[in-house]
Target: Tryptophan synthase alpha chain
Amino acid sequence: MNGIELLAARFAQVKQRGEKALIAYITAGDPSLETTAKLVASLDQAGADIIEMGVPFSDPVADGPVIQRAVNRALANGTTLAGILDLAANLTNKVATPLVLMSYYNPILQYGLDQFCHDAARAGVAGIIVPDLPLEEAGPILAASELAGLAWIPLVAPTTDGQRLARIAAAGSGFVYCVTVTGITGTTQDVTGEIGRIAKEVRSLTELPVAAGFGIGTPEQAAAVARYCDAVVVGSAFVKLVEKQGKDSMKVVSELASQLKQALKG
Ligand SMILES: O=P(O)(O)OC[C@@H](O)[C@@H](O)c1c[nH]c2ccccc12
Model:
């Protein structure tokens, strides 16, 4: 199965069980790639349906302070994209949960666009999220990811207008990631306000599953947002636990993941 098929199969499975999917984000290399490997295994065990690994980058414009600090820890210990791809290859051998990579465009360009898509697919990565690349400039990476069988997961914001939304949804694969608020990760704004409207609009444009993320950290918030979509993404809430407990965060991360998953069982 290629990445697009892997994600489709996972969403079908979750839907068949009458649940919503939990997408758990952690920053790769925080506090070390060794701990990232253990955290991915714990998240898999605890019921995460998809795991999103963030590639650390010096200028994470879409990220709030919690993830910025995680990125700094990961960069300080020398985490590289090549190291993350090696880790991914290792993990996808052992863990059934599909892995997606979130990376800003710069590290991908430095690595080499075609080489990156090729190596990511070979490592078993299912899809990529590139938050700072507008659709207008995404032609080359769309072509490379399609060739490699990697899902290109688009991000849409509350401010994305109807026509752009249609073009973005048509170009994407895997799922559509709807950002709940106009802002950065780890937001404390009300996350249920706009998501109903955006999710509905996206659903009218595509058959792809719809995920919502930004500012969702508790089981209550997850359940409230899940009413409108197929999946919820939780990042900063996990990263905060990793910040506090470092290499010993497996247990607390598992606990939060199972509580969140429980809330998505409806
Ligand atoms: O941290 P939050 O508020 O739970 O939001 C998810 C988010 O962390 C994750 O998907 C993510 C981390 N960095 C990003 C950059 C852009 C888009 C999404 C992300």
Summary: Residues 135 and 168 are 7 Å apart (CA to CA). The first helix runs from residue 3 to 16. The chain has one domain: 3-263. Strands lie at 21-27, 50-54, 99-102, 127-129, 151-152, 155-156, 176-179, 210-213, 231-234.
